[in-house]
Design goal:
Layout: E1 19-21, E2 24-26, E3 30-32, H1 48-59, E4 64-71, H2 91-103, E5 107-113, H3 121-124, E6 129-130, E7 145-146, H4 149-168, E8 173-178, H5 183-188, H6 204-217, E9 222-227, H7 238-246, E10 255-259, H8 281-285, E11 294-296, H9 303-311, E12 317-320, H10 322-326, H11 330-334, H12 349-352, E13 385-389, H13 393-404, E14 408-412, H14 420-425, H15 434-447, E15 451-453, H16 460-466, E16 470-473, E17 478-479, E18 492-494, H17 495-500, E19 510-514, H18 518-529, E20 533-537, H19 555-561, E21 565-568, E22 572-576, E23 580-585, E24 588-593, E25 598-600, E26 604-605, H20 608-617, E27 622-625, H21 636-651
Parallel strand pairs: 3-4, 3-12, 4-5, 5-8, 6-7, 8-9, 9-10, 10-11, 11-12, 13-14, 13-16, 14-15, 16-27, 18-25, 19-20, 19-25, 20-21
Antiparallel strand pairs: 1-2, 17-26, 22-23, 23-24
Helix pairs in contact: 1-2, 4-6, 13-15, 13-21, 16-20, 18-19
């Protein structure tokens, strides 16, 4: 990924051209899309955390900054910390963020929503309501109460009341959430709308809400967000959805925002990094026939892909969520006015953490959601050098953050490349975007003139010779081979070693993967994708148990349905021979045929002995540990956050 924005190459970028939405003149074609974040109080009020977060995206150059899908009534809430626009007590907080967004030349938008059957009573305290008594099993399965005509009229009024509150708070754009399987979309979908009255018409409810919100909004622009298709086998396809939307009161609409998916097809709401950028652009292009500005979301991560969408005429604006979560200055970079921001790697951590009810993080940006925190001031120039052993994500983040804070840094890595296990994961087909953040760190190392030494094995003698005043151990963790009979067989290899040597034997023949953790699953999927026959043996109940639902939404079904993949759950290995293995199951022991390399992926742990030897050689130096070496098996976000926090600690002392 180049650190040069495309705006520096071409001054006539469509991305940077103004556009009019209703009565508003947007400064460019970049929208910060609505994205849930769990940054609100449980009563729906904005927090300072949320205000600072949105202000950073406005300052970063987006023309229109949306909050998130905001519930218009308490029984339409989807998550405990979701933003509300349901009662007057939320107005002051929204007004405060509107002022801060306007301060940076951007406009503020709010997406009006009711979750319908996606709402759950344990979150809202109320039974959910929906067009028909059809539950959303993916969201929890509460059976909703079917709305009667009176209930529908009240809901229409609730949307209008929410619009009044938003406008009173200084919001510039309203958008109706008619996508992703929420209430308005549920009226459009045959499987959730089984009514026999006038609301069987899939567009009637949307039109009534549009009329009411338009009347309440006055001159304020009103948009709609739609799913171009559901993404399920029996759900609305692109052609049917287009026909339904054509029947909407689009004369009342100032912007059509095109997304895709529903809860049963979440991979279309939050797309995998395996998929091509701009994957929804072709679907969005069909909506330009209605004569309204069209924005499009969906795997838009680089300025090049965004500009290509606009130049092709498929959309008028691009709507970015995760890209701005990772890099709030993405718009300024795209227009050649800022350095490259941290790149989104499409890992889906931000989506999967919503279910944990706490503030979401970003794997690559430790400041996401921490914009409100006070940054420690530097204690002044320090002449001593911080020596960091290990150039994985934790070490890379620490080195760069220290250098930005004025500290001298020496980064040493035993491999001939940097990136640690992240670089190994980037070699599999499941994680192709991981390479982007490694490249970004490489650019930072060069820009910051950090002293980097690769292919250097650090031992106690090297530590004693170097005599660092501050030593940081970021040596990560390593896989281990269980002590079972035959483990020394030459065909047995640890998963990380398999990836380290480039898995040159993949793509043909038979392979055994022992352990279906995140690494084992990625390797098995990669092998199967290149034509290998794979036997996947796992002692647990399910595969990729520690991986979030969205992050594995493609790979798990793909493995389960692959004709050349044999998965044995609740199965463990007891003995390894050249062509077979002895396994134990709940039915006893059995030999099974298992030719080819045997790749072990049963977790990793810190090398405590190596760590203590290096500590012992450090003498009076201050010694710190970050990343997996501390004894836990953390995520990429954990590793980068460790480096970030330690950097600020060292800068301030």
């Amino acid at each position: 990924m180049s650190s040069i924005g495309v705006g520096q190459l071409d001054g006539s970028l469509l991305l940077g051209q103004p556009i009019t939405i209703g009565n508003l003149d947007l400064r460019n074609r970049i929208i910060a899309a609505p994205m849930e974040r769990n940054y609100c109080a449980e009563d729906g009020q904005m927090t300072e955390q949320y205000r600072a977060y949105l202000e950073a995206r406005a300052e970063g150059g987006a023309a229109l900054v949306f909050t998130e899908a905001s519930y218009v009534r308490s029984d339409g809430k989807g998550r405990r910390h979701q933003m509300g626009i349901h009662e007057d007590h939320v107005i002051d907080g929204i007004a405060a963020v509107a002022e801060r967004v306007h301060r940076h030349g951007a406009f503020l938008g709010i997406e009006l929503n009711h979750c319908g059957n996606v709402s759950q009573s344990h979150v809202t305290g109320y039974p959910p309501v929906a067009p028909s008594a059809v539950p959303c099993e993916v969201a929890g399965g509460d059976i909703p109460r079917e709305l009667d005509s009176s209930g529908i009229r009240h809901l229409v009024e609730d949307f209008a009341s929410a619009a009044v509150r938003a406008i009173g708070a200084g919001v510039d754009v309203l958008s109706l959430h008619a996508a992703h399987g929420y209430l308005i979309h549920q009226f459009m979908m045959p499987r959730t709308n089984q009514r026999t009255d006038e609301y069987r018409d899939p567009v009637r409810f949307l039109n009534e809400v549009l009329v009411a919100v338009r009347d309440a909004a006055g001159a304020t622009p009103v948009g709609i967000r739609i799913s171009a298709f559901e993404g399920t086998e029996q759900g609305l396809d692109a052609a049917t959805t287009l026909r339904i939307v054509a029947g909407a009161r689009l004369d009342l609409v100032d912007l059509i925002d095109v997304s895709a998916g529903c809860y049963e097809a979440g991979q279309w709401i939050v797309q995998s990094g395996e998929w091509r950028e701009g994957i929804l652009a072709e679907a969005a292009a069909k909506y330009r026939q209605f004569g309204r500005p069209v924005s499009v979301a969906g795997r838009i991560a680089t300025p090049e892909s965004a500009e290509a969408i606009l130049r092709s005429g498929q959309a008028d604006l691009v709507s970015l969520a995760r890209a701005l979560h990772a890099g709030p200055t993405w718009p300024l970079w795209a227009l050649g006015e800022a350095p490259a921001p941290r790149p989104c790697i499409a890992c889906a951590l931000c989506s999967d953490e919503l279910a944990l009810h706490g503030p979401i993080r970003c794997s690559v940006n430790p400041e996401a959601g921490r914009e409100h925190e006070v940054r420690p001031a530097s204690s002044g120039e320090r002449r001593d050098q911080v020596v960091i052993v290990g150039a994985g994500p934790a070490g890379l983040e620490l080195a760069c953050a220290l250098a930005r804070g004025g500290r001298r840094v020496r980064l040493v890595e035993r491999e001939p490349w940097f990136g640690g296990q992240l670089a190994l994961a980037a070699r599999t087909r499941q994680y192709p975007q991981y390479r982007r953040v490694i490249d970004w760190y490489g650019e930072q190392l060069a820009v910051l003139s950090i002293d980097v030494e690769l292919d250097r094995v650090v031992d106690p003698a090297w530590i004693k010779k170097t005599q660092p005043e501050t030593l940081v151990l970021a040596i990560g963790s390593a896989g281990h081979l269980p002590q079972v009979e035959g483990i020394a067989n030459r065909r047995v290899v640890d998963a990380r070693d398999w990836l380290r040597r480039g898995s040159s034997e993949g793509g043909h023949g038979a392979h055994v993967v022992w352990g279906a953790d995140r690494e084992g699953v990625a390797i098995a999927d990669d092998l199967a994708g290149r034509g290998a026959h794979v036997l996947l043996i796992h002692p647990g109940e399910s595969i990729a148990e520690e991986v979030g639902r969205r992050a594995k939404i493609l790979v798990v079904p793909r493995l389960l349905s692959h004709p050349q993949v044999d998965i044995r759950l609740r199965t463990d290995v007891r003995c390894i021979e050249d062509q077979r293995v002895l396994v134990t199951t709940d039915r006893g022991e059995a030999w099974i045929e298992a030719p080819g390399p045997l790749i072990v992926s049963l977790g990793a742990s810190a090398d405590v002995d190596a760590k203590e030897r290096l500590r012992g050689a450090a003498g009076d130096a201050r010694v710190f540990e970050i990343g997996d070496v501390v004894g836990r098996r953390g995520s990429l976000a954990d590793a980068i956050t460790d480096g970030y926090r330690l950097a600020h600690r060292l800068i301030s002392v």
